[in-house]
Fold this protein.
Amino acid sequence: MYRVVILGAGFGGMTVFHHIVPWAKKEQVQLTVIDERETFLLKPSLPEVAMGEKGIQDVTFAVRPVIEAHGTFLCSRVQRIDPEDKSVVLEDGTKIFYDTLVLALGAQKDFRAIPGFSDFGHSVCTDVLAPRLFQALEEFSGGDLVIGSAPMTQGTRTPDVPFLKAACEGPVGEIAFMVDAYLQRRGLREKSRIHCFSPADVFFEDVGDKVHEAFGEFTEQHQIGIETKKIIDHLEADKVVFADGTEIPSALSILIPAYRGPEVVAESHLGDEAGFAPTDEQFRHLDYPDIYAIGDGASRTVPKLGHLAVEQGALVASLLHRELTGRGAIHDFDPEIFCIMNMGNHRAMLIRSNTLYGGNMDIAYYGAVSSFMKKAFDDYLLHLKGKMPPDIAQRLLNVYLQRLA
Ligand SMILES: Cc1cc2nc3c(=O)[nH]c(=O)nc-3n(C[C@H](O)[C@H](O)[C@H](O)COP(=O)(O)OP(=O)(O)OC[C@H]3O[C@@H](n4cnc5c(N)ncnc54)[C@H](O)[C@@H]3O)c2cc1C
């Protein structure tokens, strides 16, 4: 049997798994997935948890039965990866050997790098922090709310990858609009000010002018203030303080922290200076060809988006199929920013752009249809346990979006 071991059952890991399953048995592939969580967490729905619209149980599903229908699932923290020995070591000391290893461990969110966060900060990034933010919002009685990102760090081993100052600003915009809708519902909007800040020169630095224009119009309409080139220094009880000495008053500070590569990747000396696994354009580790790295934990994933993790997962599965059988098409990986930003009140903005990678697609589509698509996508993914909508859905969407462009 050929041993494929996938570390991480998130967007990237589940995609690789689902794409290998149809041919694994025939080609004698033994699939093992390792994750420290028993559940898949749909992070793009955490803002809805933070607004009290959903509970954690609505944005998770158990991965064990899904994996065990076709392979082995091990629920454990991965402590070490030994690429010379071709093994990974689990927390109880068990060694799991691989022929091909897929790193899909996501990124570490470095909350500790923001002094004052543990006392005064909130976030939507985890299944612990999102419900806690909802509690804080319920106790909020008006005042200043500040939402922003800490700067991102990237290593230097893949210099052709675009350099961004923020890892992923979609959740910042999303929370701002959703908080706006939430405060209106509670009759507190008049008594509150919403401020967003970005470490970048322009908010949403990873998209083009058309999206900036649309986003700018909506932030103005919704009276959401935007400040750019702001590097957070620390948080205090009543303000956010920046490295340039300026500050914004804040009764509630909601932050997306800096992203770093997964701890185990850095500790196993498989990461670049920022801990992200460096790979070639086909997501093969630069130093170890039998290791692939995809998703938020890979140096080539910029920005840190689930859509990119999924597309990379499909590519890696197709490469493995070709490698093991000599047959099959290689999945076309064309990077693009594709996300649907929930704006509350059953409205959303669909953003699709590839200008960051040299393309000329740059679409922002606002309305109830975008909101419906987000709901349909989330429901599909949860119902089909981490499977993405079929290619035909993507092709229909392409036709629809081309009409809008
Ligand atoms: C609030 C929020 C909103 C977002 N909205 C969008 C959106 O609208 N669209 C979009 O495309 N993207 C969005 N994203 C980004 C998206 O969620 C991530 O890009 C995506 O989850 C990355 O997938 P991944 O497979 O790399 O990692 P993850 O999904 O993070 O999965 C990694 C897995 O590895 C496991 N793991 C980590 N370390 C270990 C270890 N040492 N041992 C064992 N297991 C381990 C974790 O438990 C986890 O299950 C959002 C992110 C956030 C935080």
Observations:
- The mean pLDDT is 95.
- The chain has two domains: 2-108+260-331, 110-259.
- Residues 8-13, 34-37, 43-44, 46-47, 77-78, 104-106, 124-125, 168, 170-171, 262, 264, 295-297, 304-307, 309, 339 surround flavin-adenine dinucleotide (CB under 6 Å).
